[in-house]
Amino acid sequence: MWRGDWIYQVLALHEKYGPVVRVAPDELSFIEPEAWKDIYGHRPGLGDLPKAIHLFRPSRLLPPSLLVTEDRVQHRNLRARILPSFTDSALREHDAQIIQYSTLLVTQLRGLCGEGEARKTQLVDISRWYNFTLFDIMGSLAFGEPFGCLEQSDYHPWCAALSGMAQQIAVLLAMSNLGFEWLVSAMVIAGKLTNRNKNAEITREKLRRRMKVQRTDLLTGILDNWDEKEPLDMNVLQPNASMLMLGGYETSSSLVSGLTFLLLSRPEFYSRAASEVRNSFSSMDDMTGLSTSELPFLDGCIREALRRYPPTAGSQPRMVPSGCGGVNIAGHFVPENTTVSIYPYVAGMSSENFRDPYTYDPLRFLGEAKYAKDKFEASQPFGMGPRSCLGRSLAFAQLRALMCRILFTFDLELAEESKNWLEQRHQIIWEKRPLLVHLKVAEK
């Protein structure tokens, strides 16, 4: 984990030893499709397996959030409050905001490339522009105020604080697993975690402003669905708002950047996806959350990108609890007090589950005969069970809004400097490189 190559090591172990491997003295990794439900689903008489919090949250000094709290009742209550803001019907109310910033992205990129006789090909770091757009979208959806990234063509300080916080957490996890949890606690107490502290400061400021107004957004569930007997606690609100921003911005950024790279690395599929979009819409005004979801080839491109480059590639460890006598996972007996997990990246890239796993081929998910024996249920990029990702629908809405407008408006070609873009370190998030593309306005 420290070096950022742990998921690749786990994949190599599975390729050598099979569907279950021991990655630590008391920890097992699985790749079989059945293991998803057995590890993360609800078990009659037992419920869902509890989080292996000793691996995921090394210091109890860090405040609880929907992502890391090990308390099932607390998690259920938090999820119930937040869930209404992430239903399909709720997200349709925010369609206009997603469209607004996706369209602004196109406007800004058009300005770089020029029009008419002045039209030229521009070398652009497209992932940087995706980041600007997604951060503005999340700022608008969560706090009612975009961060001006697109208009200023630059990052807001919170972007760096969020990404830096994720990297700091990865270091803390590694330190804790090496037996240095005492040092982690000392660092938290002494306020040495700069990015975490900066993130908390900005989040609290945004929350205070948001709490002064009445509006419907992604935070409505947290702020309005609170028990009247239980006062709003900033120590609960802040980490949940931070996780909301990190999840909505960073994971969507990885997904749209990954899809763009994978399509451009297979020009025949890029051309087919662009043709589907251009033949389906006469203008960007026709693109809505509903209409962009009705493109079968693009949907296959997305599903294959999620297998090849899942935005959350690492595991969510669970613990077989004491006193249960052990459990059965995908036909394997696992004794109590054992940590178990599935790495989405590893399950999706396993040759046990998928033919030619390193090949990006959207036809895999569109009925191509040679992939008939693939174990499609092994690819679960958003997780499974009561702790699965709430933001699936939001991620798809943002992705389709961005990709349809980019494919409709521009011709893209992968720059030579980014041919190996997919070779990345992974800690809690992907450490994405600049994604350089040659961009020009398409001829209509």
UniProtKB/TrEMBL annotation:
The UniProt record lists the keyword Coiled coil: yes
Name listed for the protein in its UniProt record: Isotrichodermin C-15 hydroxylase
Pfam name, any one: p450
Source organism per UniProt: Diaporthe helianthi
Single GO molecular function: monooxygenase activity
Positions of heme binding: 389
InterPro entries: Cyt_P450, Cyt_P450_CS, Cyt_P450_E_grp-IV, Cyt_P450_sf, Cytochrome_P450_monoxygenase
Family (UniProt): Belongs to the cytochrome P450 family.
Keyword Zinc: no
Keywords: Coiled coil, Heme, Iron, Metal-binding, Monooxygenase, Oxidoreductase
SUPFAM superfamilies: Cytochrome P450
